[in-house]
Specification:
By secondary structure, the protein is an all-alpha fold. The chain contains 13 helices and 2 strands, in the order αααααββαααααααα. The chain has one domain.
């Protein structure tokens, strides 16, 4: 794998997304595929974000798939990442359509989503173990210790897939926040794939980076289009698959720290309110907490990106120091 191959993949994905973006947004507007803002969120969102075209995840997926199919080596690993992204996108698409049709922010039931994500995790795990050379172990960073999990490894994959997908979904609450954070995370995985010479993983992760950067042209504040659950679940699925195939399930907690923080803030808020009757944050996910502290949307986004980049760089450094021994 050459650096040129990765750069070409990322650049092609970005250009395809940029080229198709305007027509795609016009299509969404004509067909009234608008965002339904949840009533529990900040009141300002009802005025500024309600009705903005959603389903932008389809644009991201197109930007990822075309260059990968042309420039990739068609290895098992790359197709498993694409499978996780597309299958997760299908769940998100059904969720987005339900919201659009019902004209409310509630789509599929949580248990239905989790059941479908369990199916994705099982298929991903079985194919990764049988054809992708992945062992049923949990690898601990910076050590030679690997815990053999056997059949429980598939439970771990489910936790990674469901946890990451839903965490990215929670992060997608401000213009460009999730797309930028995913780009940073997948850039890290591009580096990990490069130094371990996993060509297909490097190409598809570079494609995700490029597609996210291209999408940010239209999704940055003030957004012209949202990725919707179609995009957030797809990108979360891609990250999860990369973690499984590079055996960095634990290290993902560092590389994707922004997503972890968003999900943990919700868990803490729910637990605190139900057990103590008090809220720890003004509103969750935690980016809404800063909104209610009168931080501007762009300040929150930029600072979250910066913190995310710091943690992603830390995760890559930990991986590199041990892999390069």
């Amino acid at each position: 794998m050459t650096m040129f191959q990765l750069l070409a993949a990322g650049l092609a994905s970005m250009l395809i997304t940029l080229f198709l973006g305007p027509k795609f947004i016009q299509f969404l507007k004509r067909n009234e595929f608008g965002q339904e803002v949840r009533e529990e969120g900040p009141r300002a969102h009802l005025e500024t974000k309600q009705g903005i075209p959603t389903l932008g995840g389809l644009l991201i997926l197109t930007g990822i798939a075309i260059p990968f199919l042309i420039l990739g080596d068609w290895g098992v690993g790359g197709f498993l990442v694409l499978f996780a992204a597309v299958a997760s996108a299908a769940i998100g698409f059904a969720d987005d359509l339900a919201k659009i049709r019902k004209k409310r922010s509630l789509g599929l039931r949580a248990r239905d989503k989790l059941g479908l994500q369990l199916g994705i995790a099982v298929v991903l795990g079985l194919l990764a173990v049988r054809y992708g050379g992945v062992e049923e172990t949990l690898v601990f960073p910076m050590s030679d210790f690997a815990l053999h999990l056997g059949v429980f490894y598939y439970l771990l994959i489910f936790l990674v897939v469901a946890g990451t997908s839903n965490a990215v979904n929670l992060t997608d609450g401000l213009d460009g926040l999730a797309a930028g954070a995913v780009a940073v995370t997948m850039l890290t995985y591009t580096g990990i794939a490069f130094i371990t010479n996993q060509t297909d993983l490097g190409v598809i992760s570079a494609c995700v980076v490029g597609a996210c950067v291209g999408f940010l042209w239209f999704n940055s504040f003030p957004a012209e289009v949202f990725m919707g659950d179609t995009g957030s679940l797809a990108l979360g699925g891609a990250i999860a698959a990369m973690a499984v195939l590079t055996k960095t399930e634990i290290l993902l907690l560092v590389i994707g720290a922004i997503f972890v923080a968003e999900a943990v803030s919700v868990i803490i808020q729910v637990f605190s309110y139900r057990s103590l009757g008090r809220r720890v944050f003004l509103m969750t996910p935690v980016h809404h907490h800063f909104e209610l502290m009168d931080w501007s949307e762009t300040k929150i986004i930029m600072r979250f990106w910066i913190v995310g980049a710091i943690f992603a760089a830390t995760g890559f450094t930990l991986f590199y120091l041990y892999a390069g021994r």
